[in-house]
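I have been asked to look over a protein record a colleague put together. Alongside the sequence sits a line of tokens, each denoting a local backbone shape. Please read both lines and tell me whether the tokens look consistent with the sequence. I do not need a full report, just your reasoning and any doubts. I have pasted the whole thing underneath without changing anything.
>
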Amino acid sequence: MEPIISTKGLKKIFRIGKVDVPALRGVDLRVQEGEFVAVVGPSGCGKSTLLHVLGGLTSPTEGHVLVDGNDFRGMSDADRTRFRRHKIGFVFQRYNLLPTLTARHNISIATHIQGNGFNPHRFQAVTSMLGITEKLEHRPYALSGGEQQRVAIARAVICEPKILLADEPTGNLDTENSQIVLDMMRELNRTFRQTILMITHNLEAAAVADRIIRMRDGRIISD
């Protein structure tokens, strides 16, 4: 079976002044549809850069990136934007919720941006599974950090993206809320067969995944 994410010889070099700084040094990666994969490593090892390349947020310097059968090399910025809108959901350490909107509208706004219409059954299923049905009329300031992150996850998956990319999703949470969010991401993966690639520096957080990939100095050192 063809993987939903595949990279070959992936390199990313940032130019800082007159100095080339390699962030990725030849990454080969395969993720099957429905897998929950955690990428761990110390700060500066290249894991967030890898997520940004896989999400089409930045272009690689060298190498191949195939996501759901699409080769990013042949896509314009506009093509990648459209692809992200329909195929990829993002969850970041900062929740990025709109402060003037309720949780309900923070989630449903994603359906308006994608343009495929609002699916009330999907909305009910996702918000119920994430345990936020009683919080939908609250604005972000009235929610705990864990509740805000669950709203952000709901927003990321409400349009049924094939892939969820999560960058340190528990980085701003205490231990209890971190475990709640991780358990619910695990449940998303099991219930909806949601493909998840999660970046984290926390091995305890990574333990909920099917696979743990370790990075160091821009390379995968174990899988």
